[in-house]
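As a warm-up, study this chain.
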Amino acid sequence: MNDRVFSPSALIAEVNSLLESGFSGISVEGEVTNASTSGRGHIYFTLKDDHANLDCVMWGSRADKLRFDLEDGLAVRARGSLTIYRQRGRFQLVVSALEPQGIGALQLAFEQLKKRLDAEGLFAPERKRPMPALPIRVGIVTSATGAALQDMLKVLRRLPQLDVVVAPTPVQGDGAAEKIADAIDRLGASGLVEVVIVGRGGGSLEDLWAFNEEPVARAIAACPVPVISGVGHEVDFTIADFVADIRAATPTQAAELVASRLENQDRRLTTAAAALDRDLRRHLALARSRLAGLEGSRGLARVPQRLLVLRDRLDRTRRLKPALRGMTDRVRARLVRAETVLARVPARIAAGGHRRLLASRCEQMAQLIRSRLQQSTGELAAKRRALESLSPKRVLERGYSITTIKGSRKPIKDPAEVRTGQILLTRLAGGEIRSLAADRPSRRQPAKVQAENQPSLFSAATDEPGDRNATDQEIDRE
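Now compare it with the structure written out below.
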């Protein structure tokens, strides 16, 4: 063997066969340094300790399955085979598996992704969106066969007005993260939902890992509608929980958040409807009472007829405007014709009295039109004021009143209807006056005499406090 002469490639091949047979499947622990990734996905790095360095390579087919990012300073255990790189003749370890030391690979990958997304602002509270006030269209991203879907549907079916759209997808296993992200994207872009629930039941860290991957986090952040995350149990936290707009402890609680929002709105509407009904009934009763108090008033009885008369006059006044417009058009036409004729008159005649006469006539016509228009406008305003003065409110404001006996709504038309001791209610524009009938005339007196002898109902307002008689005291007691 010592006399044998090797070429470089033959020597390296010989050594590689010895290394691969004697140092295959070995594990090496050390600190990562000089880590880099090539364009083809291969990872190159160096494992070192206090006394030596070992070059390592992990081919892209293996690197794609690595759950965490290989960073300088990370303590790892590398498993692989020793070999010599032919092109450079360098000793290296071809790594087939990597495990971080002191922390699990999944937990390390979780912390690394969480730190990176937090630095990008995906966890920031200011980007969180509130749930819609009336979320009546809800999308669910979960497994079609899981118990979580049935738990959520059981809660949401309490509200028949709620529309639920389910985007079924695997929630664990290889490729689950990409499928979950695709389901979120499809629901958000469909325009069919106002809020999306992303969830699944409990499990181990490996079972929930799809919700800790970057594609799911990016899809939740990009969703155009608010996203509720309900993954696992109360103690489970995933990257999806940090990115989502609202975090629920369980899938059932996520559905309860939507249902409770609608149930609260239903209770508010029921309370508001009851209050509105009470107010309407109270106003209606008050209006009926006022209308009943106005029954029998002679002035009010004539109001409909007066309204018809004034409305007819108003219509005739309105028809005056087209008539004036027609007259104006005819005068304008005459002026046009006059100007045409004037243009044909020789210059020496047109420059004389004809032009002054035409200007005078134009001024007279303009004054006539302004006078007619001002007169019509005044008549229209007067008739409008007359129409407004006949409204029921104005009738009372002019001093009219309606007097009834307490306990009755029928107006008093004859003094003979009143008995001594009865309380009279007199309604005026500004309020109501109570009075006590002291006496009743034995016969019907002429209107003039009765007006002179009848005591004033308002005389008590001018008396001194000490002059009040027994009648006043009876009214107070009543």
